[in-house]
Amino acid sequence: MMTTTMTTAEAFQTVAPNNRNPTIKRHILQPTPTVTASSASLDTVKSIGRRTNTPAAYSSSFSFLKATWSNGQAIKEYQDFLSSGQQSIDGDGGDVPSVILSSSNPTASFQQVVDTLVSFGEGYDVVLTPDSKLPETLKDSSSYPIYIALPPMELETFLRNMRKSNEDQAGDYMVDSSWKDRISDFIFISGGSLWGVIEPFIKPFGYARDTMTQLLWNGISLPNGADGTAVKAADLSCKVGIASNGEDKWAGECAVCGKWRGAVKARFEVNEIRCSSAFYREWRRLMWERAAFDAVFNLVGAVRKEPTTIQDVAVYYEEEASNMLLQITSNLRGYLAVTLAYGFEERLFGFAEQPPPASSMIPSPHTTPCELVDVMYPYVFCPPLITSPMIQEYLKYAQEDRGLLQGIALPEISTKPSVMRAPTRADGVI
Fold it and tell me: pTM score, two decimals?
């Protein structure tokens, strides 16, 4: 059979067939070219706008991360769990009055986050900025959680200045010294288009650990009313099947770990937002699962000529997204000793393909456009996600041919033989 090659415009235009049949017209007319690792280049990206199963074509490796084949911290956490005799994580009581740290000049989206967290509480929360002094007590309690609702680009500056005296803090971003004494009460927030992955930025300060409270902001929609005012937040988590034990399987849940996990879980669930409580090791797997979702689905959709939603990617370009996810899981195992939980593809695609909500005012994957935001690049495409050869190829195409991410220094694509074991679908397949 004669093999043909698509042009760039043909390859990346969005096609909306009536079903998910892989033998759609685009696929029949434009057979998938065979690509080898040595020939994987920008031309390859221009011809991968269709469903194609070519993980072997992207087997190059990158040298700016060293492989990690074991994780002593995870082993210790598991041994401590076995020694405790616990069968599951206990609840730590209900919600309590909290401090919510807000940017001094928040964007509309982050102001919505702050307003939502306040609306979830019982009316005793306090919203502060970094230069404010923390109260000694809240509702007669000297112990209270502190939600760090800062944009990720401000977070590192806040943590750095927090460790300095007022005289040593540079610039206009001042942090009161009282914050330094309450680090153990911090609640760091990760996930989604607002935060992405913050682990590489808090880890140098020693805050990416099991005792620190961390919240995965996952299936929460923050809609606006017609007049721009916030309306009630909506839960976008969805059922994706029945587990072998008869329980429902869910996708898109929020998740929390650490000291204040019970208070966070109670605050969210009383407002009808599903939130699971987990040990840090399990929470971290869920966090990287969401990180893979944000990177892959937005990238695969953003390079299209026509506007493409998250749901469009799941329905019409699932093999591209699936192959990219497969490479990411391999890199997570090799570089961070993190293995995503079985069935991660079912959860991610199920979340993306869920029906639209009842109200058109609630943003969902059905309406969310795929986009690449320059300022979020280091938080969405952080190591080891950026080590995926497919992600590298797509990013290069997005910058050079689609005019996206201008001014971002992309890593060079290496052609060295990979030392990684070839990825498999041992973690589940739809």
Answer: 0.79
